[in-house]
């Protein structure tokens, strides 16, 4: 897979040289040089990805080849049964949900899907959920509670839809109702940001007992471009906005706003779907094992205090 992000130019140049050498018949000393170059590529990749800025993290989270929720479902689950419709207006494909078997136990998945082809992106509204999507999510939350299925949410949304017709159909209320239902849902909830965590579209599935983020993802009240337009009247300052927002998974973990980081393969999740899915699955099973040991009332009390404590200030510190 090519290195196609701007900050990856040094990696792209070195990778090009390595591939050119690999096509040739090499003498022993040239093979040693090739091995050293390959090691240098690994070291340089580690160095760059260990020091990503918040804006560079945003670019990785948006990478066109990054695995989507549906990829993880196929790789992690033995089966997945899609449930459709909000029993009110219609079905919103952006919210993909239903029961699945995860290592011999049934869980309820709620995912956000963007689509890759132009047709898929139209069908999924480019990952921006509509109100009927959130209402479908609420219906599935209730089903998870009824049948005692743990709820797992995979978040990857640039934001909720802001189309006029969606506002007219109660977008704000749909998001608020999701937040309320998740706060009181009597079953364990794990939410994982697997790509973009944009605004209310992400927040609506993020009230969880454990909020996790993949290493190179972001979570923000507004996209850096939007913040740049508000402050500087120019989206070109998005990189400055991202740094000021501190929206990367690493920053949010340092601030105590998320519970844990999930490491990605070298160079990002898009470079190794299988390894990333295996890591995510192992993390989910580990978290579920802990949460399922808690009595329901204790689980809800801990969830309540978790979110009440966010933003507390004591002696000048968070």
Describe this structure in words.
With 318 residues, the chain is of the alpha/beta class. Helices cover 48% and strands 14% of the residues. The chain contains 14 helices and seven strands. It has helices spanning 9-22, 28-49, 54-61, 69-76, 118-123, 131-146, 164-168, 171-184, 199-203, 224-232, 238-245, 249-254, 273-291, 296-308, and strands at 95-102, 105-112, 151-157, 189-198, 210-214, 218-220, 260-262. Strands 1, 2, 3, 4, 5, 6 and 7 form a seven-stranded mixed sheet that branches. Helix 4 (69-76) crosses helix 13 (273-291) and helix 6 runs parallel beside helix 8 (171-184). The longest helix has 22 residues, at 28-49. The mean pLDDT is 92.
Topology:
Elements: H1 9-22, H2 28-49, H3 54-61, H4 69-76, E1 95-102, E2 105-112, H5 118-123, H6 131-146, E3 151-157, H7 164-168, H8 171-184, E4 189-198, H9 199-203, E5 210-214, E6 218-220, H10 224-232, H11 238-245, H12 249-254, E7 260-262, H13 273-291, H14 296-308
Parallel strand pairs: 2-3, 3-4, 4-5, 4-6, 5-7
Antiparallel strand pairs: 1-2
Helix pairs in contact: 1-2, 3-11, 4-13, 6-8, 10-11
């Amino acid at each position: 897979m090519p290195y196609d992000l701007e900050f990856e130019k040094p990696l792209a140049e070195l990778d090009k040289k390595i591939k050119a050498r690999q096509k040739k018949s090499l003498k022993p000393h040239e093979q040693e040089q090739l091995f050293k170059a390959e090691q240098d590529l690994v070291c340089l990749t580690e160095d760059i990805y260990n020091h990503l800025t918040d804006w560079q993290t945003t670019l990785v989270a948006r990478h066109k080849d990054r695995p989507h929720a549906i990829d993880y479902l196929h790789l992690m689950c033995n089966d997945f049964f899609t449930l459709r419709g909000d029993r009110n207006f219609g079905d919103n494909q952006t919210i993909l949900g239903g029961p699945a078997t995860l290592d011999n136990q049934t869980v309820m998945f709620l995912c956000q899907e963007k689509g890759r082809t132009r047709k898929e992106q139209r069908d999924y509204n480019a990952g921006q959920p509509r109100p009927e999507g959130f209402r479908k999510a609420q219906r599935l939350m209730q089903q998870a509670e009824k049948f005692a299925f743990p709820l797992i949410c995979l978040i990857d949304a640039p934001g909720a839809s802001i189309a006029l017709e969606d506002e007219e159909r109660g977008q704000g209320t749909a998001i608020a109702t999701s937040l309320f239902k998740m706060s009181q849902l009597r079953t364990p909830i794990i939410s994982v940001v697997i790509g973009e965590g944009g605004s209310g579209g992400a927040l609506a599935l993020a009230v969880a007992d454990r909020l996790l983020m993949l290493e190179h993802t972001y979570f923000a009240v507004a996209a850096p471009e939007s913040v740049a337009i508000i402050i500087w009247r120019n989206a070109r300052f998005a990189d400055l906005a991202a740094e000021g927002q501190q929206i990367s998974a690493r920053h949010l973990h340092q601030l105590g706003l998320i519970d844990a980081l999930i490491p990605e393969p070298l160079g990002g999740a898009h470079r190794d779907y299988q390894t990333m899915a295996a890591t995510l699955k192992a993390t989910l099973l580990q978290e579920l094992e802990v949460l399922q040991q808690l009595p329901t009332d204790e689980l809800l009390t801990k969830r309540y205090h978790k979110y009440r404590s966010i933003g507390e200030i004591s002696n000048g510190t968070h």
